[in-house]
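Entry:
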Amino acid sequence: MTEKKGITILAVDDNDAIRYSLSRALQGGGYRVIEARNGTETLELADETLDLITLDVHLPDMDGFEVCRRLKANPRTAHIPVLHISATVTDSENRVRGLEAADGYLTEPVSREELLATVGSLLRLKRAEREARLQAKEAEKARQELNEAHNELELRVQERTKELSERNEQVRELSVKLLVLQDEERRRLARELHDSTGQMLAAMKIALDETLVEVTGNKAASLVRQSIEINDEMSRQLRTMSYLLHPPLLDEAGLPSALRWYTEGFTARSGIDVDLQVSTGFNRLPQEMETALFRVVQECLTNIHRHSGSSSAKIQLTRTTWGVDAEISDKGRGIAPDRMREGKIVSGVGMMGMEERMRQFGGSVKVLSSKSGTVVAARIPFTNPASG
């Protein structure tokens, strides 16, 4: 009963006796009732506070059908259930017409029990609709909040992705600078070893030769000869070290000549036969590009010597109008399984260095490996093909 006292029903009928009887029945059912005599009063009294309207069809100023249509057309009152009650308009055609807009239709005489049961049913339907609207509203609010959260997260992801991309680009630029500085430092050290330390060893050799002429006695002469041999070996190792740091042929004669010198020395040191093939008409490239390609070949041959177990290697250096290709291959055991992940090679420091050297010229490095050997293909495209 307490729940029903909070429910307000507007009873509309131009017949005072019927309206009184209707109001008494509803009040007896525990509802709060207000009354209206015609359509105009009904439209004036109808607002959001009403829970239900019982509406006579035959009214003096406008029929109940029109009143119901206006109520349902107004967003403020469209949710209020309307129950038509009529003693005169009882034919099926008009009842169907009424139910096109109204929520229920009763014909007089109506028993108190039928009236209260119908009103209760419509109120339950209204309550269910209100709860459904609230749930839909909450669901829409949750959807909007989720969409806002998604958009915010997407924006943050984009910002972080942009930031990460910028950081990666900064790291790449720094890596390229470090590689350039490394090459410059190698060139400087090679020059100092050759020009300074090499000259001192040469001067020592001259002094030892003169000493050998002056000394007497087999023991002293033997010691001088040993010193001369040590000096000669030191000079050879120093020269080799200097050339490995930065071969002077790379600056003086170009990439093919430097690679021929390097592969001959590599074969002598490692016992691995190297087949170097260079395409005809391979002219000079920019110094930084030649250095990058030389370091890639040097790194590959070092890896072959350390890891492949191959007795031979092949280098194919090709220049076309579109760019330069360097392919280094061996017939060894291939890359170890622990260096593979999902069919791709996990890049180590050497591999990353090769990739960065090629990337600074817009190039790339690809590696194909199997049990029968490994192929490393480095490519640098020309920005202007005509320059090839």
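Residues 384-388 have pLDDT under 50 and may be disordered.
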